Amino acid sequence: MQSFSPTVSVVVPTFNESQNLPRLVGLLDKAMGDIAWEVVFVDDDSPDGTWKVAKQLAMDDVRVRCIRRVGRRGLAGACIEGALSSAAPYVAVMDADLQHDETILPDMLATLQKDEADIVIGSRFVGDGSSEGGFSARRAFASRVATHLAAFIIGRQVSDPMSGFFALKREVFEAVALNLVPSGFKILLDILASTRGRMRVAEVAYRFRSRQEGLSKFDTRAILDFLGLLLHRLTGGTVSVRFLFFMIVGAIGLAIHLVVLRIGLLGELGFEVAQSAATVVAMTSNFLVNNLLTYSDMKLRGTAALAGLLKFYVVCGVGALANIGVASWLFVSNESWWIAGIAGVIVGATFNYTMSSIFVWRQQQN
Ligand code: GDD
Ligand code: MN
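# manganese (II) ion complex -> structure
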């Protein structure tokens, strides 16, 4: 049977990159020489119709594939799905915006084929690599700080652990896939952290180009993701990133609650009225922030968001009862007031988290 079996699948996560795809395919074609390759675009249903462009390209070229994901967002998750869709012996991951230099792919692949490394990273910071032009000064500084923090969780020095440009054996990827956090922005870091020191790493320098078309999706959320990943790995992978976010949002909600309560009291509302208003405001803001951050990959919109908010009120109401129940029980059993108080909060918050993950943002917790 006539068949096409690629040696390497180049996985490219995309979000609003329609203008970049045709050029990228052309550049890959030029760079790969006689290597049998395919490119797998994983698009999160981009409003600019990137997936349509990808599928159009696929009509003309068997080496082009596209996975269109709906109702989901996330760079790492997209890379994971793309890599898992591959049957090639090697998998590479790169961005669609032409910032990553495709001409080093054959080098990266050769290193893997010679079995000199388990993973090869395209690095902006080793040898002749550079990120001049590609990054603002502020972003470059943040990137350096993050690189040092990263060394900490991956247990070794890698010059560019934040890179979104790397290649590895598919088998190796399949083995770690289950341990990865799909909601993150830094998938390479996660791969290195979850295999802590067990992988032989090689680095190939490249020049990080500036983005020509479209916008960067790097934002505050990406920074928070990074911090979340850091904490997740510091706790040995036991505490989930989502749970950490949920707790941080809860702590902010408590501050908001106190501010509203204080304003209410200053405005001469009775305590009960002020406390009720503060509770509603805090629950609502917690819902909104969780929807934007904690569950950004499954954000509820429109009427689904309204229904979610109502369910969130119910969940938090029951959580508050659990909180008060546990705290009072401990308090009457002669625990000190603050132990009773904290225990109540922990039980209530954990309850809220678990129930929210099941009923409000319906999906498994990870
Ligand atoms: N499917 C999908 N879903 N793709 C996404 C999403 C998403 O939610 N967010 C971003 N992407 C795609 C973009 O379309 C692009 O192809 C790639 O992921 C990287 O996004 P950029 O917005 O261009 O990120 P950046 O340039 O700021 O940072 C990138 O390069 C750095 C240097 O290697 C990322 O790869 C960083 O992780 C990396 O450090
Ligand atoms: Mn980019």
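# post-check
Strands lie at 8-14, 37-43, 64-68, 90-93, 119-123, 166-169, 201-205.
The mean pLDDT is 90.
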